[in-house]
Amino acid sequence: MLRTPYLAVLATAFLSVVSAVAVAAEPPEGFHAIFNGKDLEGWHGMPHFDPRDLARMPEDMRKKQIEEWTADAKQHWSVENGELVNDGHGAYLVTDRDYTDYELLIDYRTVPKADSGIYLKANPQVQIWDFTEEAKFKLGADKGSGGLWNNSAGAPGKDPAVLADKAFGEWNSFRIRQIGARTSVWLNGKMVVDNAIMENFWDRQKPLFPSGPICLQTHGGEIRWKNIYLREISAEESAKILGERAADGFVSVFNGADLKGWAGAVDNYEVVDGAIRCREGKGGILHTAEEYANFVVRLEFNTPPSGNNGLAIRTDGKGDPAYDAMCELQVLDSEHANYAKLDARQYHGSAYGMVAAERGFLRPAGQWNFQEVTVNGSSIRVELNGNVILNADLAKVTEYMGGRPHPGKDRKTGCFGFAGHGDAVSFRNVSIRRLPD
What we know:
This protein has 5 helices and 26 strands. The chain is mainly β. It starts with a helix and ends with a strand.
């Protein structure tokens, strides 16, 4: 008489547990699974290998090499109860797809003395290791997992801000947000890396690759992974996140409605949909009424196909800002066919005619880009969509495009502005933070 209710209760409890597991395994809203919980579909093998060397291989050789790496990976990777398991050996596991801006959720569980990590855009790595292994304390193991271990010594993000690892035998959960080269990491709900620039391990003089695969590293001890979900971040959301980072001290210099507070070629610009836009066929310098010495400016810009404009840095509103201001930073749809044969110092983000910026980080024409420019003394730094594309000291420039000097480059103060060249380039969310003189 007592068995039937007991069994019914037990069955109900069992179904509740199963249902809870099923719900927990569902990707959060906006995310999708990049590991299907059954097999290695969507992934291939690859060891610690420079992705540029792989890209340079002839297609048939590259395909054969990936097949060999994948065959090796299958000897060491398996799927058990919806978990991706590695025995601590073999090639790493790499997504077939490349990703640009995204948020990644992933759970892992490992064993004592294991050492692993997650490559982002084919770049090592968000570190995972045994925070109790005293032999590796000198390497930083005692600080815990989640740091960007391959960043340079002392660089932001190299060490996690807090120790957030759980005890061995428990599952740990990462939330990783990648926007350009800016990496944020949460481990078990605690932020351990806050918008740090992830250095390009393969060439530290270059920015992180614009896009690339996610790679799960294997390094001498069993590790298990599950609930691997990804959400791609749009250009609009990326700009919003980048604009909100460390925003204290920034003051808006554009009210979104009119050109109050601006001077110069005001008749050649208009306000359309909350953005300053250069009138088609017009140009000249539209500049702030206030002057700035050292400062950081944040803004968003949008170019039409082949659009051309510029940022006038420390200008007096007169002459040609490329030569008479400290510099003109190019705003250009660089990859348009019209500009295939420019001097390297004429492409987007470059200090026109003086220092070339890195290319490959612009959104397609018609999309909004986020840019931050830091002017400090004679140095100028340009960050585009989370990637540092220019970092130069103009006082050290001795060679100029066409041999034409830039007499204004040593200016110590001036206005900030836009240098129109006849194209309907738009700017919005313009804010400036003064730096100490």
